[in-house]
Structure formats: C-alpha cells, structure tokens
Amino acid sequence: MNMNIESKNIGSIRTFLDILDGIEFSDDYVYFYRGHSNYTYELEPSIYRNNGLINNENKIFREIILKCPDDFEDSIVTFQKLVKMQHYSLPTRLLDITENSLTALFFACQNSNSDGEVIIFKIPKNDIKYFDSDTVSVISNLSKLNVSFDISKETFENKTGFNESSDIKLLLHEIQQEKHFFEPKIVPEHLESVVCVKPKLDNQRIIRQDGAFFLFGINGTKASCAKFPKEKIFYPNNQKLIIKSSEKEKILVQLKRFGITNSKIFPEIDNIAKDIKSNFEEKVIEKNVEPKINKQHPIRIGQHAEDVFRHWLNNKFTNIKYNQTSFPDFIVHDNNTRIGYEVKYINNSRSLAMRLRDIIYKTFYLVEHNDFDKIIIVLIFGNMDEKIKLQEVIHRQQLDINKIGFMTGYIDSNDIFNLTEEINQG
Question: What is the pLDDT confidence band of residue 87, given thresholds at 50, 70 and 90?
Fold first, then answer.
C-alpha cells in the first residue's frame, strides 16, 4: 500500500507522548521503538556498514572469543554471544530495539548536529522469536561462515537438494555445535529474513533498556544484507517522528526528569560515575556579569536566560541551590522560608497553555506536600509583544493557590534580560 509519509517535528516529551496516546494499540501486536540520532540512517546492522567488517565477520566473531574467553563462557548459543558482542560495541548482525518509547527518544536526541528520528515497529506477536529458537540459531550462525557463503544459486523448490549443498552443510555443522539434536533441514526463506528476537535477560543494559533485537539474515549472498520488511514500520497518522537538532538538548533535560539518563540506560560504573559528577558540578557564574543571549538559537536562549536569572538571584539572596536535574530549577532559603523558582523560556505564546498545565501540576503537588513555602514560575518571553498574550493565558488558568506565583521577564533588543513584577492571581 502506497502512503504519503510526512514528517512530524517533536519538540518536547509532551508532544511525543501525545502522539503515542493517539495510537490504537492492538493486543495482537508488540510495539517496539528505535531512536536514530540522524534521520538519514538506514535500518541496517553495524556489520553491514563497512565492507571490511562483513568480509571478515567470521574472524571478528572468533577473535573476540579467543581474546576474552571468560566473558563468553556462560553464552551457550550463538545468538547470546552476538548479544554480548553488541553490548561491547563490536559490529554484529543485530539491530537494537526497545519496548520503552522514551529510551528510543533518548537515543534519537544524541548528536545535536543532526535531526533525529524515532521509528516505531508493529510486530505480530506470533512473529516474535526467543533466544533459543531454531530460526534464530540458523540466522545467528551465519556469523561464523565465510563471506563466500551463497544461496542465490540454490533452488529453493528442491529443499532436499538445498540442504545437501556444501554451503548449507557448513551452516548445519555450526548449528549442531550448539544444538546437537538439530534436524538437518533448513528452511531457505529463514536465511533471507529479518526476525525480532527477545534475548535472555542476563544483562543489566538489556534489562534497563527493555531491549530486544532485529536479527538480520542475508540477501542471496552473505555479503548482502537481508532487506528490512517495510510493512513492519508503523507511522502514526502517516508521519515520521523527527527530532530537530535544535530541540535535542531541551528534550534530554526533560528525559532526565523522567529518570532517562545515560547511566540508567548504560548502567556500567564508568557511565554512572560521569552522571554523578555532572549532577554535583556547579555552573559558576560571576556576580555582576550579565551573560549575553544568542537569539538565533531558542534552546541557548533558554539556557542563557536561566543563567541570567541565577545571576539575579545571586544578587538578591545568599543561600541558593541550583537544582540541575529536577523541578524546580532553583531553591532559595531565606529567613526560614523555602522558595522554589522554575524558569521557562516561551518562544511561542500559543504553546504556553499546554506547557503551563504541566508546570502547574508539578508545582501544586510540591506545595500541597509542604515541600516548599512558595514556588515562583518564571516565564521568559522573546519580546514585549508577547507579554499581554502571556498574561492573559496565565489569568485564564483561574488559579486560587496562594503558594504559586508567576514572574515574567523578557529579552530586549540589546540582549539584556529584564524582570517584570510578579503577576497577581487575584
């Protein structure tokens, strides 16, 4: 079926989740996700991205086991060996996917120099294989064979003759090394397929990522990769989900508040150490130095405006904590009063109402649980023309919560940040 696939730009977690909420999920399918940091990337496993790699796949497979035997002693079947190789970034015929949509969004937000994409896959439950499946063994063991392996010359209709060919006998020999009682009959079509496989959960990274894999066969010859079946790609509303490069950093900050971080997805100690360091490092801003704001990049405007606001706080209060990883952005202790400040840059007043509801919900929860005496929501807009629209949106919320306040600011023509008075909710 021909479809006109359009692009849908994702600018926030809310937009992303709203799209997923609109999908009518079927119990007959499992939905998987994959994030590409560059939307031009193909659905192709790493072993096929370089001729030198696929030409030497059998040597790569044996070299890593030869040099790191202890790491593979618990991996009996070839597929599990490939999973471990993939874990250590060795090129394989596996392609990572996840059942966690936010994990895929995290990967799509890497590399701020290019637009990313989140791809959704709709896989019939009956098509999903497990790590010990015979079909999985057949395709996985292609990794051990020479690149000259070729079934394009074989006649599929004559399956008996097919299984008697020299190349297939070599493959059967490798399969029977892990499955001694494997019946020497290979279905030719399996070799040229791409199957979805659920691995054994013996790896913390797979567990944290809700991971699974596409296992790729061949296309006639081993040197050519099996084609991914496009009918298994699901486009909500016939749209590709594109993450603009300019939005990636903002979304990563939002994901951090959902607990999606580098150390959560890659739970090795070196990654955890990097995240701990980042969480406790202070961003040093000299007092009485007003940072300049680059208006050409909205994400940087928000970051600089936040820095400028901290500069304003530093000149007003002495006991300030920069709450880098969670809500609100700043915590001020003043005369036994605990005040939170949450800073948001609004580049379009039309999107404010939706974003405001989310902010107010978090704020209401904190003040109702007595974590704060008051929380001030600081809304920064790009120019004075937006101010009246912004104030109208705030008043339409009809709040009656005396512990929540609003403060607005704007960036003038000289790139100077200006604070206005707190908006009265009465």
Answer: confident
